[in-house]
Amino acid sequence: MPPTLDAPAVRAWCRLALQALGRAREEIDAINVYPVADGDTGTNMYLTVESAAQAVDAVFDGHAASGTEPDLSSCLRSMAHGALIGARGNSGTILAQLLRGMTEVLASGSGDLRPALRRAAESAYQAVAHPVEGTMLTVATAAAEAAAATADAAADAWAVARAAYEGARRALAATPAQLDVLGNAGVVDAGGRGLVAVLGALADAVSGQAPMGPLVDALPKGPALPFGCAPGGDTGDPHVVPGGPGFEVVYLLDAPDTAVDGLRRRLDGLGDSLVVVGGDGLWNVHVHVDDVGAAIEAGIEAGRPHRIKVTHFGDQARAHERGRRGQRGEPALRAVVAVVRGDGLAALCAEAGAVVIAVRPGEPPASGEIAEAIRRAYAREVVLLPNDVELRHAAGAAAEQARTEGVRVALIPTRSAVQGIAALAVHEPSRRFDEDVVAMTSAAGATRYAELAVAETRSWTMAGVCQAGDVLGLIDGDVAIIGGNLVETGITVLDRMLAAGGEMVTLVLGAGAPAGLAGRLEAHVRESHLAVDTVVYTGGQERCPLLIGVE
């Protein structure tokens, strides 16, 4: 059966796009010089897609509870709605409209991506008050044109999506020649770069193949400007576009479609970077102005504005810089925020002084939940421990949100709870922040990690084929051993890890760990590995009988 876009493919598209934007987020933020050099385009696009992905996951969860399968239309509409209500910044708002435009075509029963991509580009241009070439609008149009040019009228979804992706890449490479601010900075358009990632994820999703790989290949590489600086030398306040408005105003608006044209005219006279997206009574409004009150009053006249957010560009950028560099002068309050699975681990980290995000089985925290925990810490300096390789992108986006609010956040990329425990063990609030972060990072990096898991199905692994019920020993994230029981597999894992040396073993027992497991492993270490200490904790984590750390 040829590749097609169905409900599972939409879910995969959202997840792959979120992963791609997570990998590229910092790069995209760094090249964000237009329309305002506020260094948040990658983060905004990530958060927008995250909201879309959560909406699609909710559809699948609802159908799973009733034993049914969701249809393509409901998934697409949920994706578009999630992106609309979660859209952040200029780029995220335009991306939400692109997804809505595609949905208008695909949800009506057409499975052809070509008219969907064309409608997406057209609707995005209509949403922007004054479209500028050399931006993500140009990239979207090029993607639609490349898709339309696919030779075979019956081309499958993958061929069309791949053509759109390649067309977008070519258009992105040309953006510095189309927009002087990009050419002067030696970078491609940040929003366009994010859109290329999203289109690459679409091609991967409909094909079912592995991701296409680095999206920066064949793209111009040049020096990105330091965050918050416009090209062309000193312009006074480096955080604000010279002569441009000082505030970003964003809100959701409940209003009839007939009121939106008047709203656009009113806001267009107040500022620039105006984007109004949505429909069917719900709109997302984004504009840069000097008169904040007038921008909100315009929304009140049109309908009911809510989720109103106002950001001063100078304050935002300076807060971002404070978050990266920290404040000199008076001592700052400090906190550690740790993401953990299991009540025992949560209690252990809380006892060590951390603000804990307890992860429920199968429900990893979104970036917003992690950002809220950072706020809840009420600290000016925060060390963030994700303790899971799958959470690195969400944690990175959360840290970026907190930095824009003036919090200095150091993200230590702990890949397992045992690395988080090692970092917390050397945490010393009385040290300078930088010194504490270095010590915690070193302790985490010096801790090799492993886990035992029970295979649920027959599958291929790095260690060969496993059957359902086999015990898998994963070392540093890869399956290294396939065993018959927890004790024997645990002993093999420990011997392999300690062969490279080690002074301390940490065992964290999961909710399903059998009685005596820790004792057997502790005795083996004591008898077979001289001068190696063992410490045992009851973690209570689900689906993982044992976590192992070796320092």
Summarize this structure briefly.
49% of the residues lie in helices and 18% in strands. It contains 19 helices and 16 strands.
List the helices and strands and how they pair.
Blueprint: H1 7-30, H2 41-66, H3 72-86, H4 89-106, H5 113-127, H6 136-148, H7 157-178, H8 180-185, H9 190-207, E1 247-254, H10 260-268, E2 271-279, E3 282-289, H11 292-302, E4 304-312, H12 313-325, E5 334-341, H13 343-351, E6 355-359, H14 367-376, E7 381-385, H15 392-404, E8 408-411, H16 417-425, H17 433-445, E9 448-454, E10 459-461, E11 464-466, E12 471-475, E13 478-483, H18 486-498, E14 504-509, H19 517-528, E15 533-538, E16 546-550
Parallel strand pairs: 5-6, 5-7, 7-8, 14-15
Antiparallel strand pairs: 1-3, 1-4, 2-3, 9-12, 9-16, 10-11, 12-13, 14-16
Keywords:
single chain; 551 residues; alpha/beta; six-stranded mixed sheet; four-stranded antiparallel sheet; 19 helices; 16 strands; 18% strand
Walk me through what this model shows:
Strand 14 (504-509), helix 19 and strand 15 form a beta-alpha-beta unit. This protein has 19 helices and 16 strands. The N and C termini lie far apart (51 Å). The chain is α/β, with parallel strands linked by helices. Helix 1 crosses helix 15 (392-404) and helix 16 crosses helix 17. The strands form four sheets. A six-stranded mixed sheet has the order 13-12-9-16-14-15, with helices on both faces. The protein has a four-stranded antiparallel sheet with strand order 2-3-1-4, sandwiched between helices. The chain has a four-stranded parallel sheet with strand order 6-5-7-8, with helices on both faces. The protein is globular and about 80 Å long.
